[in-house]
Amino acid sequence: xxxxxxxxxxxxxxxxxxxxxxxxxxxxxxxxxxxxxxxxxxxxxxxxxxxxxxxxxxxxxxxxxxxxxxxxxxxxxxxxxxxxxxxxxxxxxxxxxxxxxxxxxxxxxxxxxxxxxxxxxxxxxxxxxxxxxxxxxxxxxxxxxxxxxxxxxxxxxxx
Length: 159
Ligand code: SME
Fold this sequence. Notes:
Layout: H1 12-27, H2 33-48, E1 52-59, E2 62-69, E3 76-78, H3 82-90, E4 94-96, E5 114-122, E6 125-134, H4 142-155
Antiparallel strand pairs: 1-2, 1-6, 2-3, 4-5, 5-6
Helix pairs in contact: 1-2, 1-4
This protein binds methionine sulfoxide.
């Protein structure tokens, strides 16, 4: 596996496309889930300099912290709690422009202002969620959701 990612593209969509292509190539045939989740978290952080990016993995009735990049975070989140637990319960991506307006938001860091959470599916079951946080209000849009969903759909095939 190569050691660096090349940033290219002018629009956010082009940048996501370039990143996803490189991640697919770099991960190649690796089958280890932790290695793949760790490199995707690192790739997103390196490419877009998000405040926090990482995975929570479904374990019975809770989400458990998985590979991530950024400040230390909550270890466990119950089903239906916070943005992550809600995305799991609702089985859909959640875009939160202002975390203070999301009922039950879990503030792992008081610096986090907006957030997007994408579920990862395997055989129609949610197996994990990707959580991306920003320290800026309203920092994500439908382009982020579209490409992070594409990334997660592919990633779930290599877990
Ligand atoms: N804010 C998330 C918790 C995870 S941390 O932000 C990393 C939530 O409400 O589910």
